[in-house]
Amino acid sequence: PFVPLRRITPSELATHGARKNETKTYWTVLEGKVYDMTPYLPYHPGGEKELLRVAGKDGTKLFNLTHSWVNWDNMLRGCEVGILVSENEMLK
Ligand code: HEM
């Protein structure tokens, strides 16, 4: 059966940021897809701190500046939470 992707707004995304985060899970966005990076944090070759820089926000730019050759789509398979939509889009 067709299972629609979960839609996530920037404000929900922001509750999974590096600070003032009660969820204790860290999300980021890569090219419109929302990922839960939490399980990957201890394995990142660049360290947890660098990953947390993009927690709660769109990480696409910083990711591509650092290592555009890394295949995040494959690496983060299973960590996908849904897709980012604007607050307005959510009301439709
Ligand atoms: C290295 C994955 C986000 C900073 C790496 C490497 C992988 C990886 C596989 C090794 C690359 C190689 O050696 O060719 C990821 C994934 C990310 C992510 C899946 C998103 C979820 C970021 C962000 C930053 C960052 C946002 C922030 C600047 C670095 C740095 C290294 C690195 C500095 C180099 C570490 C070293 O070789 O000493 N990352 N990364 N990464 N990453 Fe990330």
Task: Describe, in plain words, how this protein is organized in 3D.
The chain is built from five helices and four strands, in the order E-H-E-E-H-H-H-E-H. With 92 residues, the chain is of the alpha+beta class. Strands 1-4-3-2 form a four-stranded mixed β-sheet. It has helices at residues 10-14, 48-52, 60-67, 72-75, 87-91; strands at 7-8, 27-30, 33-36, 80-84. The model has no long low-confidence stretch (mean pLDDT 97). Helices cover 29% and strands 16% of the residues. It has one domain (7-85): Roll (Flavocytochrome B2, Chain A, domain 1), CATH 3.10.120. It is globular, with a radius of gyration of 13 Å. Protoporphyrin IX containing FE (HEM) is lined by residues 28, 37, 44-46, 50-51, 53-54, 59, 62-63, 66-67, 70, 72, 75-76.
Question: Can you tag this structure with a few keywords?
Answer:
92 residues, Flavocytochrome B2, Chain A, domain 1, four-stranded mixed β-sheet, 4 strands, 29% helix, 16% strand, globular
* Sheet with most strands: 4 strands, mixed
Which strands sit side by side, in order, in the main sheet? 1-4-3-2
Which compounds are bound in this model?
protoporphyrin IX containing FE
> What's the overall geometry?
globular
Low-pLDDT parts are none
Structural class, from helix and strand content? alpha+beta
- Named at the architecture level, the CATH assignment is Roll
Radius of gyration: 13 Å
Q: Tell me the helix content.
A: 25-40%
Can you write the helix and strand succession as a string? EHEEHHHEH
Number of helices: 5
CATH level-3 fold name: Flavocytochrome B2, Chain A, domain 1
Overall mean pLDDT: 97
- CATH superfamily membership, which one? Cytochrome b5-like heme/steroid binding domain
How would you name the oligomeric state of the polypeptide chains in this document? single chain
Which strand-content bin applies to the residues? 15-25%
